[in-house]
Amino acid sequence: MFVDEVILEVSAGNGGDGCMAYRREKYIPMGGPYGGNGGRGANVVFKADGGLKTLIDLRYQKKIKGKNGNNGEGKNKHGKNAEDTVIKVPIGSTIKDSDGNIIADLLTDKEEVIVAYGGRGGRGNVTLATKTNPCPSYAERGEPGESRNIKVELRMLADVGLVGLPSVGKSTILSMISNANPKIASYHFTTLSPNLGVVKTKTGTFTVADLPGLIEGASTGLGLGHKFLKHIERTKIIAHIIDMSGSEGRDPYEDYLTIRKELKEFSSKLINKKEIIIANKMDLESSKTNLVEFKKKINNINIYEIEAINNKGLDTVIEELQKLVDELPNEVLFDEDIQEKHVLYKFKSEKPFIIKKENNMFIISGAKVEKIFKMTNFNTEEALDRFAKKLRSMGIDDELEKMGVKEGDIVKILDYEFEYTK
Ligand SMILES: Nc1nc2c(ncn2[C@@H]2O[C@H](COP(=O)(O)OP(=O)(O)OP(=O)(O)O)[C@@H](O)[C@H]2O)c(=O)[nH]1
Ligand SMILES: [Mg+2]
Asked: What are the extents of the domains in the chain?
């Protein structure tokens, strides 16, 4: 799979509830309010981590939930804010909302974005005290944390791209050095889309993309064309694979030139990339003499001799690749595909409420009104009054009147039903 993707539900933590308490101390008669505020709920944060290569760790985690803030306590003690939940993803991860809008592209190491905001803590009765109501008998509940469905996509930024003519052994190499199981066969164009593998070496890991074979004229659309070359624009290293045996009747040096020409025609970026040359099929008879000729023509560039099929010579190759991967800077380019689809992410300005009439019941919904509802603790008359006032100030009563509400009709918010009184 070239684009690694995971669908997740993320919920930030709820705010802690505010506390309703009175000061009761010896010799202090009318102690006044003494309840502290709740703490903020955890944000869910996604952070790019240069050490990660795939989204595999997220695949088994369908839901991510941030911790709730602590509740406020008496003696005006505020609840603690919850620590953010930080999810590490590889560099190159794109996070989208359920409509496909991009929330963030994490393109540099340690870059981070808040994907779901934690709820604020509810206010305790100390904070809620006003001149007209110096000792409220209610406190707010914590604000619910934001919850949303997201998709995380990784445009695989392979460290190394395996490039070469068809049937030179690219997929065989990938199967030997990595966890991948690509299809291998003696006919051309066995590989139709890029395969990715993760290589573990003594000192680290890197990723390799095995690309479909290129042929002369690929840049003009022959064979599978060059559409896959754009994937290696983002790689650090090109590993150029050559069938040194000339088993299909071609000259290995000509093969080398053909591929270089196609790379160059595709883009100057590719031709200037760090390249290593791998001579494969060294088990076949003609390979030794061909290699001598090849080396003469190419001016002693270091060439790695391998027999992919027998897993020979590959240890040296992967050690060298690991070294280069560690040395070279991360090349993270903006993919045009991403840019095209990139829209500025904005919260839709929501209507504060919607009222639907069903028989004699009025159902009120909307993010704002539901939030006020969830933050209200309905255990005292005063809290209920305050809730009613808030609805009135939002214009809900006026709207209900317009819709013909009568005394005693049922008004419903979420699961809560109450009778309408003027
Ligand atoms: N003798 C010999 N044959 C090899 C070696 N490596 C691969 N082959 C054979 O070469 C053929 C092509 O191998 P693949 O790995 O499928 O080649 P590819 O470059 O991925 O080919 P495409 O996906 O079609 O571009 C297969 O029959 C392999 O068994 C090798 O070191 N020696
Ligand atoms: Mg292949």
From this structure: 3-156, 160-329, 354-419
